[in-house]
Automatic annotation (TrEMBL):
Segments forming domain Radical SAM core: 15-120
InterPro entries: Aldolase_TIM, Radical_SAM_PqqE_MftC-like, rSAM, rSAM_sf
Name the record gives this protein: Radical SAM core domain-containing protein
Cofactor: [4Fe-4S] cluster
Keywords in alphabetical order: Iron, Iron-sulfur, Metal-binding, S-adenosyl-L-methionine
Native species: Marispirochaeta aestuarii
SUPFAM superfamilies linked: Radical SAM enzymes
Molecular function terms from GO: catalytic activity; iron-sulfur cluster binding; metal ion binding
Pfam families given in the database record: Radical_SAM
Length: 325
């Protein structure tokens, strides 16, 4: 099996973040490693993606603005590599005042960034007060930077709250009704993986591992999707919504080595039943009697178990499998 063509993706500059949102696919947080992508390394990732047909990527994190000088350099590499920078994601936590925000945005524009995606949603507002994304939006207007809000539907709703401070889950539920965050997750079209699984699992119907396997026979086709992939600062290729494997970007375009990627290839060819059987047989995996909400839930738990039991170079980053993050 080979990943032979890529369409549109994202470059993960860092996993460190000023927030630790409940829905975060990558389990980013202030506790994650502060490493940032090396611009020269970013260039090689962009070249690899381009060689497989990708013409546009965005920059995301973590929070990319946490190391602004490195961010500027990374933006500059896109132009050199002939890769369109579709947009730059931010949670706006870096905003302090309009003048300094305009200055940063102007420098980013000069480096080749023309669009910023500003995150506003019920999960971000637990960490970022609304005045910060609003400040970035106003600065974008002044600096001539294009922007869009992710997601606009929540901005209208959350605008009724105090813009000067963060809001807890309890406050959000008091304002918008019980289970507000759960309903928000449904409206978001959330990918239930990473931290989102832990956050929302209690609210969904659970099935036994055997029932999950029976309901999901055959290959996991999602793991082979390439439409909204990511590449991270460590050089890992990440299929859309499928986190926790470390597929080296240098192996893209070639036949994937079964000795290097046994679990990923097993998922692609045989699916969750085969992974479950192997985990029970070889690693002593014992399924949770409470059950699972999806095949990704079971898959992630098996991989977390395996990451503790054996060294597997195809599972990572290590911090992804640590509950402390
Ligand atoms: S969703 Fe974005 S802002 Fe929130 S923790 Fe993840 S990377 Fe950080
Ligand atoms: S079941 Fe596993 S391999 Fe398939 S998409 Fe979910 S997390 Fe990825």
């Amino acid at each position: 099996m080979r990943i032979s063509s890529l369409f549109s993706g994202g470059l993960i500059s860092n996993y460190n973040c000023s927030a630790a949102c409940r829905h975060c696919l990558y389990r980013s947080s202030p506790r994650r490693d502060a490493s940032y992508i090396d611009p020269e390394f970013a260039r090689s990732l962009l070249h690899r993606a381009r060689s497989l047909g990708c013409r546009g990527m965005h920059i995301g994190g973590g929070e990319p603005f946490l190391r602004f000088r490195d961010l500027l350099d990374t933006v500059g590499v896109f132009r050199d590599a002939g890769m369109r920078l579709d947009y730059l994601e931010t949670n706006a936590s870096w905003f302090t005042d309009k003048a300094s925000a305009i200055e940063k945005l102007s420098r980013l524009a000069a480096a080749g960034c023309d669009t910023v995606m500003v995150s506003i949603c019920p999960f971000h507002i637990e960490f970022i007060p609304l005045y910060k994304p609003e400040g970035v939006i106003e600065a974008c207007k002044s600096a001539g930077m294009n922007f869009f809000i992710w997601q606009e539907q929540y901005y209208r709703e959350l605008s009724s709250l105090d813009h000067g401070r963060t809001h807890t889950r309890e406050e959000l539920e008091a304002a918008f009704g019980p289970d507000y965050l759960l309903r928000a997750a449904g409206r978001f079209g959330l990918t239930m993986n990473g931290r989102a699984l832990e956050s929302f699992k209690p609210f969904f119907r659970h099935s036994s591992a055997e029932e999950i396997c029976a309901a999901n026979p055959g290959a996991c086709t999602e793991a082979g999707e390439t439409s909204h992939f990511h590449m991270d600062l460590y050089g890992n290729y990440i299929p859309p919504g499928c986190v926790g494997f470390t597929i080296d970007h240098e192996d893209l375009g070639s036949e994937l080595d079964p000795e290097r990627y046994p679990l990923f290839l097993m998922m692609l060819s045989e699916g969750i039943s085969a992974l479950y059987e192997q985990a029970r047989r070889d690693s002593g995996f014992i399924p949770d009697p409470e059950g699972y909400i999806s095949k990704c839930d079971l898959c992630q738990e098996i991989r977390t178990w395996m990451s503790k039991m054996t060294f597997s170079g195809e599972l990572g980053p290590a911090e992804f499998y640590s509950p402390a993050h």
